Amino acid sequence: MIRPMIIDISEWQHPNQINYPLLAKQIDHVIVRVQYGSAHCDKFYQTHLRRFQELGVPKAVYAWVRGTNHADMAQEARIFFERAKIFQPTFYWLDVEEQSMSDMRGGVEVFRQTLKQLSGKKVGVYVAHHLYRSFNLAVENFDALWLPSYGSNSGSYHGIKPTVNQNYDLHQYTSKGRLPGYNGFLDFNRLADRKPFIFFTDRPQDSTAWGMAEKGSFSLKTAIHLRTAPTIHAQSLAILRAGQTIDYDAFAHEQGYVWIRQKRADGTYGYLATGPSDGQKRTAPSWGVFY
């Protein structure tokens, strides 16, 4: 699992199907849809925002843009702000996935300017990958750019990146993610390392938050690198030999393997691959024994 774990949700995720306290433990930031155009208010946005607020999860909001002219775009921005402001979101996003007027570049800019003046907050834009070039939005005027690119859309990140613009800040890499606390699919997003987590949430990421908390021991059956991050491309801290046992405090299915995390004497963490994974479950026996 990539951290920080950022999900975006809407009325398609029904509150009755969400265990909010459990889901909140798995995520670092949530982006909630408020409206689909000004005429359709998301049925559950207030419930989503209120529950995650109670649980201390940093929250942002987004609106699907459907304005039909410049005046309508400004009105959509005003309605979006009025619906969301009570929840004091850390970030406002425009979701541009539909050609609702001929001058999308000018219309979306009107939406941005109006929302920025009303909220005084950071305003970002999400643009559908296949419409990015034809819309030709003034993305440089926004505080951040959010792009989708799924690849095989397996629920995990496998290195696929957006290609329409290399200067993006948030990457939606799957629409089929799964987390404890919700049985359906979720959109997963990752930072692109251009801006820190605090830029989007007004608070630093909890450096201890990673994977699923679980304490145990693992005895190796073969030599495995202990690494500085849960990827085979990370620096090797040591090669642990067969027969050695380490204690761990969390695990995650990430980058093609099941990783465990070891807290080291200096307060840093080491990560050990324990066998192959498809992102959700093991695909072969582990390379050791768990206790």
UniProtKB/TrEMBL annotation:
Span of domain SH3b: 213-280
From the UniProt annotation, give the residues forming the signal peptide. none
What SMART domains does the annotation carry? SH3b
Protein family per UniProt: Belongs to the glycosyl hydrolase 25 family.
Report what the protein is called. Answer: GH25 family lysozyme
Record organism: Enterococcus xiangfangensis
